[in-house]
């Protein structure tokens, strides 16, 4: 009893994890975002979503069709544009290339993985 009015029942259906050295975030995870407008982040946060995976660069035809920014430059710009929001942002890069260097560029720019 450390907070009045708060009851947390721990029983046989509860699994306790050690949180030392970890970043633990409560909230929902949306794993398929087409970043068409910045208001999406605000709406997600208001609904309890705290982590978003996807991509795009705004109201562009490519963003409407896929969930990936077009290359390293736009990955970097999207990450910079979203730093003001208290949300876990996971951006994917374009994996449909014959250039290994193109993949490495996107990783260095912040891509967490690739979408084909």
UniProtKB/TrEMBL annotation:
Urease domain span: 27-116
Keywords, ordered alphabetically: Nickel
A GO BP entry: urea catabolic process
Pathway the protein acts in: Nitrogen metabolism; urea degradation; CO(2) and NH(3) from urea (urease route): step 1/1
SUPFAM superfamilies: Metallo-dependent hydrolases
Cofactor needs: Ni cation
A GO term, aspect molecular function: urease activity
Enzyme Commission identifier(s): 3.5.1.5
InterPro entries: Amidohydro-rel, Metal-dep_hydrolase_composite, Metal_Hydrolase, Urease_alpha_subunit, Urease_asu_c, Urease_Ni-bd
Name of the protein in question: urease
Organism: uncultured prokaryote
Lineage: unclassified sequences, environmental samples
Gene designation per UniProt: ureC
């Amino acid at each position: 009893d450390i907070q009045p009015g708060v009851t947390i029942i721990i029983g046989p259906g509860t699994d306790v994890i050690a949180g030392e050295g970890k970043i633990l975030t409560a909230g929902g995870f949306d794993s398929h975002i087409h970043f068409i407008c910045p208001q999406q982040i605000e709406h997600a946060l208001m609904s309890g979503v705290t982590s978003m995976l996807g991509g795009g660069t705004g109201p562009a035809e490519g963003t409407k069709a896929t969930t990936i920014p077009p290359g390293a430059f736009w990955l970097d710009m999207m990450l910079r544009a979203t730093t003001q929001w208290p949300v876990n942002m996971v951006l994917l890069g374009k994996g449909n290339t014959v250039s290994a260097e193109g993949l490495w560029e996107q990783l260095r720019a912040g891509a967490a993985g690739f979408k084909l």
